[in-house]
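Recap from last week: sequence in, structure out.
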Amino acid sequence: LSGAFALCAAGPLCRLTGLTDDMALARRLGVAVAAVDGLSLVAVLAARTPASQRRAANLNAGTDAVLASALFVHSAKQSGSRRITAAAAGAFVLGGAAGWMRASRTI
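Predicted structure tokens:
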């Protein structure tokens, strides 16, 4: 779901967070985030054993944590609404990481 959201909202989010005003670059970033998110989900679904599903879920949590960290670092360099928007996006992605960690414990 977050990958589809990234694909659809990449342009406005990049502009609102101060990442870039170049819409072509923003679309490419959205495609990259959506592709990584989609491939990560496929890795969990395609895993044949619970151990490999846990590894894939933990990898997804790690990639989400890295993206969230990058957004938090970026937000610290911004001011005003750009800071708030980047921090909120980081919190959203960090929530995804937490979800993957919960999922890995229940597999």
